[in-house]
Specification:
153 residues, mainly alpha, Arc Repressor Mutant, subunit A, globular
Length: 153
């Protein structure tokens, strides 16, 4: 296969298609949870030590905005605020069992949507795609670590 004249643009377009497949799997799931709220649940699900300030940092918003997002999620029964057992002044954000079930269901739907597309591709190309995406992830992670080290130096 010949390299396209603008490789970055071609990859961007392909990535947009992948995002579209993932988004359509989520949007077909009828939920009252906004994409931003889903992102919050996903972030705190993978980070059990997260508090409102940490969440604000992850989202790149002010703490009051993060707190309002948490208020809405708490009102819907998808988030709990709990005291940190090591420091009772500290409040941790914890997804509820309902939130974990929602995230698991959405992840399953996303995987099914991607698998449906992969099933229409030859096995060799699927493997090449995986290798390329893993290499891309390594390169992006290495750059992020380099940027982080430069900021702390």
């Amino acid at each position: 296969m010949e390299r396209p004249p603008n490789l970055a643009a071609a990859i961007d377009a392909a990535a947009e298609t992948l995002v579209g497949v993932l988004d359509s799997a989520v949007s077909r799931h009828r939920t009252a949870v906004s994409p931003t709220q889903l992102r919050v649940l996903s972030l705190i699900s993978g980070r059990p030590e997260t508090n409102v300030n940490g969440l604000a940092e992850l989202l790149d918003v002010v703490p009051s905005s993060a707190s309002r997002l948490c208020d809405r999620l708490e009102a819907t029964g998808l988030l709990r605020r709990v005291s940190d057992p090591r420091d009772r002044r500290e409040v941790r954000l914890v997804p509820t069992a309902a939130a974990e079930a929602l995230l698991h269901d959405l992840e399953r739907r996303r995987h099914q949507a991607v698998q449906a597309v992969l099933d229409r591709m030859p096995g060799r190309v699927q493997h090449e795609l995986l290798l390329a995406l893993l290499a891309f992830e390594r390169a992006a992670t290495a750059e992020a670590q380099t940027d982080s080290s430069a900021r702390t130096a």
